[in-house]
């Protein structure tokens, strides 16, 4: 009898203790949820402010492209035009041969993208799967070249292109950008995530290195290749100094050089036309980015950082 009473008393104590702990647990969960909510709100607030700061120049560029010349700097920063001058875009288009400039920039951008996809794929595969002596040192040396500024190599590159007779030509505009250290790094990091068993199984089936690259590695690397294409296209489209150096005829100039036509020695900078030209010049870049956005995000996530 005494034993039953003791057991019953212990059970009552356990139930009362659990009942006391339950409210405390609920309070801790609520505090944790509130802390997480506040943290999420702060993150979104910071991102919102950063987004507004980054988009303000684009808003000013678009609104200024519709303003009369005397309102560019006299009105408020984000004020809408008092009179919408749609003719600024037509005047900007005819101020320079932008039709030819767009064609040149498109050919150069496509050539650079295709060239980098080919050279970076071969280099990244060799640095990952081919048993080369000093392979790791070679990769570190290639990555270290990113510390060399472009300005220090532009004169030697110019002399080489001149000696080859490639001035005022598409090959001269494309050749210096046919490979990319960033592309090699990005692809190699992705290749390192591919299971080694897959590579060894392909070798046992008699597949050559070319077969493994084109049948296995590249199909698995579609998102990373899309990311590389986006960066290569952006770099080629926005190139200014190199096309300016090796081209002397208007028929080989690019869209970025076309913006110089809006600067008149006598009239000064024609800001409405310059903003209008800048607006339609970035449209191909924005379109390409929107088309490749989902692949860009997946590519960055899949490439990873693996030694």
Key phrases:
cell membrane; 307 residues; two-stranded antiparallel ribbon; membrane; 2 strands; mainly alpha; MetI-like; 1% strand
What this model shows, in words?
This protein is mainly alpha-helical. It contains 13 helices and 2 strands. It has helices at 2-64, 87-94, 98-129, 135-144, 154-163, 170-174, 181-191, 196-204, 209-220, 222-237, 241-246, 255-258, 271-303, and strands at residues 263-264, 268-269. Strands 1-2 form a two-stranded antiparallel sheet. Helix 3 packs across helix 10 (222-237). It is flat.
Secondary structure topology:
Layout: H1 2-64, H2 87-94, H3 98-129, H4 135-144, H5 154-163, H6 170-174, H7 181-191, H8 196-204, H9 209-220, H10 222-237, H11 241-246, H12 255-258, E1 263-264, E2 268-269, H13 271-303
Antiparallel strand pairs: 1-2
Helix pairs in contact: 1-13, 2-13, 3-7, 3-10, 10-13
